[in-house]
Design a protein that fits this description.
This protein is of the alpha+beta class. 21% of the residues lie in helices and 31% in strands.
C-alpha cells in the first residue's frame, strides 16, 4: 500500500483568523492509502454510500473522480450534510466546485461555494441525516484526533441535530483549559490595569477574579473554589461566561473542551463517558449521559473591571499570568478582529435583528422555569440601573453598578425604589439593604439571595433560547 501525507488547511480559514490564531500554523495530515483512508477504517457496519463519500478525500485523483460519479448517480438528499462536511475538510478546489454544483442541481438552491449559506439552509429544513451519519462523523473527525471517534456513533443518543455539530478547528482540549491554575493576591497582580475586564466570582466567601484577556485564550478553568468543584466556561464566540458546579447528585464530572461547536457555542466533553455537553444549557446532549436528566447548577458570576472588583474585594485572589502557556495575554489581543465587527465566525440557523448580533445581554434562565428564559439588553440596564422583573413565580431585581456590572437578586415580593449604584438599595418602606456578592441584607437582618445570571452576545443567547423574552 502506498501512503502519502496530504496537507490540509481549514476551509476559508483566513476568514476565521481569531480562532485559528490559537493554533497558528495548525495543519492536519491525513495518512491515506491507495484509494482508501488508512489511519482508521470505516466500520463494517458503515454503508457502502458512506464509504464512497469518504473516498472523496483519497489522495488518488481517479479514486476521487470515481467516488464523485457514484455519488452523482446514486444521489440521496441524505448525502447533503456529509458532502458539506467533506467540502470543509477538502483541499481539492476543483472537486469542491463539482460538489457544490452537484448540490445546486439536486437541491435547486443557488448558494455557489458559500458553505455558510448552504449550512443555514440545511439547518432550517427537516434533518436529512443518513442512517450512518453519526458513524461517518466518527470516522471523518477521527482522522483529526482519534479521541473524536468516541463522540459520535449510531448507538449514541443525541438531543441535538448532528449536522449542526461543527468542528471548530482544534483537537480535544486544543484550546487548553486551565486546571487548578495558579492564583495570586491583588497586590501581586501588577500586570492588570484598573479598566481590564474580569469575571468575578465568590463562592462561600472565596473571592476570585479571572481576567477576560487570559480566559479568551483558554475558554475554561476548572478548580475548587469555596469548597466547591467548579468550572468556569467562557465561550468567546458567543460572549458567554458561565460558572457551573461540576458535582451533580454526588458525581463529579471532569469537563474539557471537545473541539466542536453547536450554534457557535463550544461543546464540552466529560472524560469518563466522552459525552458532549451543551455549554450554555449545562446539559449533556450527545452520548451515554444524554439520556440522563443532568443539568449542572449555575453559580453567580459578574462581568466587571479589575479596579471595581478589587475595590469591593481587596482580599480577592486573581489568576496569575504565569499559566504555563505562551500566549499574548495583553488586554484585547485575543479575538481582536472578531470582537471588532458584528460578523459571525460560524453560522447559526437563525438571527434575530432586534439587537445587533454581538450586542450584550444579561441572560437569565432558572431551572424550574427553563422554558421561559429572559434576555435583558445591557444598554437598557445601563439606563435602568434598578430594574424589577419576574420569571415564573420568581420576582427579582437587577442592580447595575457604576462600572456597568449587573447582579440579580430574588425579591420575594419586596419592591425597591432607590439604588446608589454602589452598595445600598432602599425598599418602598425606606429600609436600606446592603449588597454583597451573595445576597442583599436589610438593616433589620432580613436577606435576599443572589440569582445566577451571565452576559452573552445576543445572537448566542437567541441561538440557544429562541423562545426567549427580550427586554430592550
Amino acid at each position: 500500500m502506498i501512503r502519502r501525507m496530504v496537507k490540509y488547511k481549514f476551509y476559508n480559514s483566513h476568514k476565521r483568523s481569531p480562532l485559528f490564531s490559537v493554533v497558528a500554523g495548525f495543519v492536519i495530515y491525513l495518512v491515506l492509502g491507495a484509494g482508501s483512508l488508512s489511519v482508521a477504517q470505516p466500520s463494517e457496519d458503515s454503508s457502502e454510500e458512506v464509504q464512497t463519500i469518504l473516498k472523496l478525500l483519497s489522495p488518488d485523483q481517479k479514486t476521487r473522480i470515481n467516488a464523485f460519479e457514484q455519488i452523482s448517480r446514486r444521489w440521496s438528499d441524505s448525502f447533503t450534510p456529509m458532502i458539506l462536511e467533506i467540502v470543509r475538510l477538502n483541499s481539492d478546489v476543483s472537486l469542491n466546485r463539482r460538489l457544490f454544483n452537484l448540490l445546486a442541481r439536486e437541491t435547486s438552491q443557488k448558494f455557489g461555494s458559500d458553505i455558510s449559506r448552504w449550512q443555514v439552509w440545511l439547518w432550517n429544513n427537516e434533518p436529512l441525516s443518513h442512517s450512518n451519519y453519526a458513524d461517518f462523523k466518527s470516522f471523518l473527525y477521527g482522522l483529526v484526533d482519534p479521541k473524536f471517534t468516541g463522540y459520535f456513533s449510531s448507538d449514541r443518543t443525541s438531543k441535538i441535530r448532528l449536522d449542526e455539530v461543527i468542528w471548530g478547528g482544534v483537537r480535544q482540549d486544543g484550546i487548553p483549559p486551565l486546571r487548578h491554575p495558579k492564583m495570586i493576591s491583588a497586590a501581586q497582580a501588577k500586570y492588570l490595569d484598573d479598566d481590564n475586564i474580569v469575571f468575578g466570582i465568590e463562592v462561600n466567601g472565596d473571592a476570585r477574579a479571572y481576567p477576560k484577556r487570559i480566559l479568551a485564550w483558554h475558554e475554561m478553568f476548572v478548580d475548587e473554589v469555596g469548597g466547591k468543584h467548579v468550572a468556569g466556561v467562557y465561550c468567546t464566540l458567543c460572549g458567554a461566561m458561565i460558572l457551573y458546579e461540576t458535582e451533580h447528585a454526588g458525581v463529579s464530572y471532569h469537563l474539557g473542551t471537545s473541539g466542536f461547536l453547536y450554534r457557535s457555542n463550544k461543546l464540552m466533553y466529560d472524560r469518563k463517558t466522552q459525552s458532549l455537553w451543551n455549554t450554555i444549557w449545562g446539559q449533556p446532549v450527545i452520548g451515554p449521559l444524554a439520556n440522563s436528566d443532568i443539568t449542572l447548577e449555575r453559580l453567580s458570576v459578574v462581568t466587571t473591571t479589575w479596579g471595581e472588583w478589587r475595590r469591593r474585594h481587596p482580599g480577592t485572589q486573581v489568576l496569575s499570568i504565569n499559566t504555563g502557556h505562551r500566549r499574548d495575554y495583553s488586554e484585547g489581543a485575543a479575538y481582536k478582529s472578531y470582537f471588532a465587527t458584528d460578523e459571525l465566525m460560524f453560522g447559526v440557523p437563525k438571527l434575530d435583528t432586534r439587537l445587533d448580533n454581538k450586542a450584550e445581554v444579561l441572560g437569565l434562565v432558572f431551572k424550574h422555569f427553563s422554558r421561559t428564559p429572559l434576555a435583558i439588553s445591557e444598554k437598557f440596564l445601563s439606563e435602568n440601573s434598578l430594574y424589577h422583573d419576574r420569571l415564573g413565580d420568581i420576582d427579582f431585581i437587577v442592580l447595575t453598578d457604576k462600572s456597568g456590572a449587573n447582579r440579580v437578586f430574588e425579591t420575594n415580593g419586596i419592591s425597591f425604589r432607590l439604588w446608589d449604584r454602589d452598595q445600598t438599595a432602599t425598599d418602598q418602606q425606606g429600609v436600606p439593604w446592603t449588597m454583597s456578592e451573595s445576597r442583599l441584607t436589610a438593616s433589620d437582618g432580613r436577606t435576599l439571595d443572589r440569582l445566577p445570571a451571565h452576559r452573552a452576545f445576543w445572537f448566542g443567547w437567541f441561538s440557544a433560547y429562541p423562545q426567549t423574552r427580550l427586554v430592550r
